Amino acid sequence: MLAPNRLCLLLQLAASLPSIGLLACRETAGISEAPLRDAATFPVGVAVSVSRVWEDPTYEALVRHHFDSLTPESAMKMAAIHPERDAYNWVYADGLVEFARETGQRLHGHVLVWHEDLPGWVATFQGDASAWSAMLEEHITTIVTRYADAFDQWDVVNEAFEDDGTLRHTIWAEHLGEDYVAACFQWAGAADPGAKLFYNDFGLASSPQKLAAVLEMVDDLRSREPPVPIHGIGLQMHVDLEHPTIEEVAHAAGAIAGRGLLVRFSELDVALNPGGEDIDLSSALLEAQRERYREIVAFYAGLPDEVQAGITVWGVSDADSWMRLEAGRMDWPLLFDEAYQAKPAFFGFAAGLQPGDTSPAATITRSWRP
How far apart (Å, rounded) are the C-alpha atoms in residues 123 and 73? Predict the structure, then answer.
């Protein structure tokens, strides 16, 4: 059988219409590789655009083939799912649930409470702290209750702390008070007592003050009577080739797991151009990215099974990355390129899953237990 890249080239040369050749290439891209999900002992997930799953057969095929956990990238953020005060838009979230039931993939809910991607009506909402509390409780309860049979994990609160460890000044903190995070976890836990509830944030490996603040929050929530339910921390692994170091990642993961919490690498991508400079993609950069993915995945695979909640890659192809679509900079941070071909990064991820990996990253916590 011809290798996919060679087959694509022949199809493009032979096709009377270039678009036909390109479509054939996209349909063979990335699917010939062994599924990542089959090599892992923990969930291997991806953040997905529900509309892309519906509209792009190659995108959908890659999502099916390589991943066993799905996170809605934007479909359940407040602006998308609760666009009007008295109206919810269930179309995309329901569509993802239907897709996951068909494929047997698990679902991780993202995100119930964040200070960004808010609908316009929230900015103009009127009322005292009690009214704001009732509004947010209704939002959380409605969503978690509707999907209690589909989602077994939720990012309850996202990015509530600054890098210096202080509580971020957000619309929620302003109107509900500094204890709003505890209330959100209480409401989510009441709506689905069987769900695993996560706090999710970036920079926890590189910002000691933020990590300390999050752990202090966990200790406080668990010390209350009754305890406020919180089960894990999502480390948003938006990293580059050098930062944070694997030792910093290990420290953060160990500190979290030492609290008896689940550790989740929730938003993994590896930036090659964090400064947004005018650079060319080179084989040296791609090889460095391969090694970075390998060491991160090998480290995670070395964690004790009982603390592993999974790794989620934040997007399918480089063309889908938030770095291009939201940050507006040229970068190549994901496992597949614009044509959905597996990059060296993909093979680095796969190598990190291998049980025979004896690198320092893989063994740094292998003998550790919480």
Answer: 23
| Cis, peptide link before residue 226, omega less than 30° from 0 | yes
Range of the domain at 50: 36-363
The confidence band for 29, taking pLDDT boundaries of 50, 70 and 90, is low
**Which has the closest alpha carbon to 181: 189, 254, 262?**
189
Angle of the 18-28 helix axis to the 57-66 helix axis, nearest 10:
10
Instruction: Please check whether residues 187 and 268 belong to one and the same domain.
Output: yes
Same domain? For 6 and 103 the reply is no
Contacts of 99 (CB under 8 A, 6+ apart): 50, 53, 70, 105
Task: Say whether both 138 and 233 belong to one domain.
Answer: yes
Question: Which structure tokens are listed for 198?
Answer: 């996560």
- Both tokens of residue 315? 């997007």
272-309: pLDDT as tens digits: 999 999 999 999 999 999 999 999 999 999 999 999 99
Chain centroid to CA 164:
23
DSSP string covering 268-320, please?
EEEES-TT-------HHHHHHHHHHHHHHHHHHHTS-GGGEEEEEES-SBGGG
Q: Which are the catalytic amino acids?
A: 159, 267
What does pLDDT average to over the chain?
Answer: 90
pLDDT tens-digit readout, 95-119: 999 999 999 999 999 999 999 999 9
pLDDT at 355: 78
The domain total for the chain is 2
- Tell me, yes or no, whether 370 lies in a domain: no
Is the pLDDT at 1 greater than 60, yes or no? no
Q: Are residues 66 and 107 in the same domain?
A: yes
Do 138 and 5 lie in one domain? The reply is no
**For the CA atoms of the chain, what is the radius of gyration?**
21
Domain with residue 304: its CATH number is: 3.20.20.80
